[in-house]
Amino acid sequence: MAEWDIPRDEMRVSARPAGERTVAGPGGAFTRTTMLAGSLVSAVVGCLMIVTPVRTVDVAGMLLGVHMAVQGVLQLLAVHDSRASATVRRLLAAGGLALLVLGVALFHGRADTLSLLGVWTGCGWLLRGFTMAVSVTASSVSHVFVYDDLLNAVIVSAGLFMTAFPFASLGQLADVGGSVLAATAVVEAFAAARRNPGALRAID
To answer: What mean pLDDT do residues 88-117 have?
Structure first.
């Protein structure tokens, strides 16, 4: 008689094929919406930096600052819809707030030289990439997807490159930064498309 006391949900889990698991979506439709909004902002700012001639450091700082501030706000909003542990949510909130502050600083021209603009932008991308990476590798979070890993790798790599690369001209920084944002937008859009409001199949 003891076998009939097993909850039906557990019986359904045990009936799944080996190597396959279904997990709850990381925040559902709202998280997917914030990711799509972030990819749209990245695409717009990236295209503007590539297509429009960026003539001064202040203009480049304003564009990158807008992007970083918006990403910080979106990350703060996504925290409230996250199903991660309290520690992970606090980490994401701290990262989002830091991005917001850094974006506002860039927007107001606090990076008045080419090298400083590159370093600040790289640090912002590193911060975002690392906080996202830690959030999806935490033990309380089981929703690790291929496109999430790729997105984090792109952002962290771009941050390292922007921080270390000695840009020779503002046009070079604008082209590199715009290309990185465009690439990030594509990957983030794919990552958002992999998420469903309900249950999702994890890729092992």
So the answer is: 88
The predicted-structure confidence for 139-173, as pLDDT tens digits, reads as follows: 444 443 445 677 788 888 889 999 988 888 999 99
C-alpha separations of 86 from 19, 79, 118, 133, 143 in Å = 29, 10, 33, 16, 16
Distance of alpha carbon 89 from alpha carbon 131, whole angstroms: 10
Containing 168, the helix (H) or strand (E) segment is none
Structure tokens at 28: 């559902």
Task: Specify whether the CB–CB gap between 187 and 147 falls below 8 A.
Answer: yes
Question: Residue 101 and residue 36: Cα distance in Å, rounded?
Answer: 22
Task: Give one DSSP letter per residue of 32-59, joined into a string.
Answer: HHHHHHHHHHHHHHHHHHHHS---SHHH
pTM value surpassing 0.90: no
200 DSSP β-pair partners: 23
